[in-house]
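Could you help me review a protein record that somebody else here produced? My question to you is simply how this chain folds and whether the tokens agree. Thanks in advance; the entry in question is below:
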Amino acid sequence: MDRQRREQQWSEWMRRAMDGDTQAYHRFLTGVTPQLRLLAVRRCREMGAPASDAEDIVQEVLLAVHLKRGTWDMSRPIGPWLSAIVRNKLIDTLRRRGRHGSVPIEDVMEILAADERTDATDRLDAEQLVDRLKPPQRDIVRAISLEGAGVKETAERLKMSEGAVRVALHRALKALAALYRSDVREDR
């Protein structure tokens, strides 16, 4: 199957998943994971990261897709959305190691913004995870990711600099990923 048809299939599965079709969501995750893995390995190679990081990146991407699937614009191709998430997760990995890549926050705001189409159960799950964060991380994630506020607005409300809000948001999302992974392990 060529790339365009494959991405059309993923888009269709994701649309159905967002309408509550759990089997379509399973097909989407199963179908997209091998391609995410290939993309992660290629991006690791391009950025000088060890290929062994690829699997961790894929897991973080799958978590991000799950938590933020409502932010995907159904009228646009899903491939670039997934590619951007892989790139951002690789940059996060490089930063943890002390290598710095940068992505302007404006480039990822639509991924971070809340969307009213998100299923109520998913929102409740996300809010329960967010409640486990410490302030001000909890307040920042709630404002930006769940309420759709901007970085500047959040910084003013919390009397913080925009840079401090960005750093806290990055760390909070990393902490949420760790919390989610530990919850998934406990459920097995």
User: Anything to note?
Assistant: The two ends are 33 Å apart (CA to CA). Residues 22-47 form the longest helix (26 residues). Residues 11 and 78 are 6 Å apart (CA to CA).
